[in-house]
Structure formats: C-alpha cells, structure tokens
Specification:
Layout (H helix, E strand, L loop, with lengths): L5 H25 L10 H19 L3
Length: about 60
C-alpha cells in the first residue's frame, strides 16, 4: 500500500471534521423548540367511540 503525504492526510482530516461540525451545527439550529399541540379530549373520546362501534359491528354484537 502506498503511503500518503502527511499534508494530504491533514487536509482530508480537516475536511471531514469541518463537515461533521457543520452538520451538527445545522442540526442544533433545527431543534429550536418542539411544537406542542393542545390535546382535545373530546376528539379522542369521539375517535375511541367510533373505533368501539366499528369493532362491535365487526363482531356482529351491535
């Protein structure tokens, strides 16, 4: 195997390190604040009731 010039190895290492630092910096900026939606209990109860009715209909118990 042929030996590489130390300057080339240093340039490759610097490029990889810069790429990794840039991607982690961009990812850190992207996660600013999580979006929290308000939970609507009436909607959850309605969907649960619809699923129960469908299950009972499928079982022919309804």
């Amino acid at each position: 195997m042929e030996e590489l010039d130390p300057k080339i190895i240093a340039a490759i290492t610097a490029a990889v390190r810069a790429y990794i630092e840039e991607t982690t910096f961009v990812e850190a900026e992207a996660v600013v604040a999580p979006v929290v939606e308000k939970i609507n209990l009436w909607a959850i109860a309605g969907r649960q009731d619809l699923m129960l009715q469908r299950r009972l209909w499928q079982l022919r118990v309804y």
